[in-house]
């Protein structure tokens, strides 16, 4: 079984400030980890993913995440927030399998103020 | 454009009715996944089809059913609709290794009145 916990349903930052969205996972096998972003009235867009290899993963729009196995975490960061980053962010977990399904966290709404 | 096409974008229907949501996967993808997104439940996995065969079921109600056709498009049928079925329904597709991530469509917003 696998699960994802996202700490904080809402996170507020000022433009230019560090963005940190927290994600912890539970998986009985080595996980694949993902961050998706959802803008209002749109579908989910893949930001970045960790499957194997380097634990620091860089994604689109300046976001990155680090897989920490010892902490079962995959936190999402961005050094400097932009107004256009305001959206809902979802962390998800799966594992290697031809038929694996993604399990999503509840999501974190990122609010960016000027 | 993600390459995954969902129709219709919006649907308003009355309680007790039946609707069909359609999804065309990205070219070359054999897997189709259906998810329901609501404010209280978040993103819930409903069902997964791979090359026409059902592979996994999640929290899908008995009133809901799905299928994937030979041309790989999929349909999600929702019947005896209730107010609580109002939600965003997403389709996603992936290649053979679904564990490597999905591509999502833009969703169908279903409103039951």
Describe this structure in words.
The complex is a heterodimer of chains A (114) and B (113). Chain A is mainly β and 114 residues long. In chain A, 0% of the residues lie in helices and 58% in strands. Chain A has no helices and eleven strands. Chain A has strands at residues 2-7, 10-14, 19-27, 31-38, 44-50, 56-58, 64-68, 73-78, 87-95, 103-104, 108-113. In chain A, the strands form two sheets. In chain A, strands 2, 4, 5, 9, 10 and 11 form a six-stranded mixed beta sheet that branches. Chain A has a five-stranded antiparallel beta sheet with strand order 1-3-8-7-6, with no helix packed on it. The radius of gyration of chain B is 13 Å and the shape is globular. Chain B has strands at 5-7, 10-13, 19-24, 31-38, 42-50, 53-57, 64-68, 74-78, 87-94, 103-104, 108-112. Chain B is built from no helices and eleven strands. Chain B is mainly β. The A-B interface holds A 32, 34, 36, 42-46, 49, 51, 90, 94-107 and B 2, 4, 31, 33, 35, 42-43, 45, 48, 50, 55-56, 58, 90, 92, 96-107.
Outline:
The complex is a heterodimer of chains A (114) and B (113). Chain A has 114 residues and is an all-beta fold.
Keywords:
heterodimer, A: 114 residues, mainly beta, six-stranded mixed sheet, five-stranded antiparallel sheet, 11 strands, 0% helix, B: 113 residues, seven-stranded mixed sheet, four-stranded antiparallel sheet, globular
State the total count of DSSP E strands of chain B. 11
Determine the strand fraction of chain A and express it as a percent band: over 45%
| Proportion in β-strands of chain B | over 45%
Terminal-residue CA separation of chain B: 30 Å
H/E series of chain B, N to C? EEEEEEEEEEE
Low-confidence stretches of chain A: none
Q: Measured on Cα atoms, how large is the radius of gyration of chain A?
A: 14 Å
Proportion of helical residues of chain B: under 10%
Shape label of chain B = globular
Shape of chain A: globular
**Biggest pleated-sheet summary of chain A:** 6 strands, mixed
Largest interface: A-B, 25 and 27 residues
Global mean pLDDT of chain B: 93
């Amino acid at each position: 079984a696998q699960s994802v916990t996202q700490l904080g349903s809402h996170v507020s930052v000022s433009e230019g400030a560090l963005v940190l969205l927290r994600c912890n996972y539970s998986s009985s096998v080595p996980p694949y980890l993902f961050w998706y972003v959802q803008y209002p009235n749109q579908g989910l867009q893949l930001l970045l993913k960790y499957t194997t290899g380097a634990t620091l993963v860089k994604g689109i729009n300046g976001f990155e995440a680090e897989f920490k196995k010892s902490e079962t975490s995959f936190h999402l960061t961005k050094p400097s927030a932009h107004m256009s980053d305001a959206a809902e962010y979802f962390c998800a977990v799966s594992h290697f399998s031809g038929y694996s399904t993604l399990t999503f966290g509840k999501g974190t709404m990122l609010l960016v103020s000027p | 454009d993600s390459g995954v096409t969902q129709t219709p974008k919006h649907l308003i229907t009355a309680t007790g009715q039946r609707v069909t949501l359609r999804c065309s996967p990205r070219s070359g993808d054999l897997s189709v996944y259906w998810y329901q997104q609501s404010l209280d439940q978040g993103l819930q996995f409903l069902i997964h089809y791979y090359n026409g065969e059902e592979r996994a079921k999640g929290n899908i109600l008995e009133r809901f059913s799905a299928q994937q056709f030979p041309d790989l498009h999929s349909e999600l049928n929702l019947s005896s609709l209730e107010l609580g079925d109002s939600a965003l329904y997403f389709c996603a597709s992936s290649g053979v290794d679904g564990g490597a991530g999905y591509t999502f469509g833009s969703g169908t917003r279903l409103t039951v009145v």
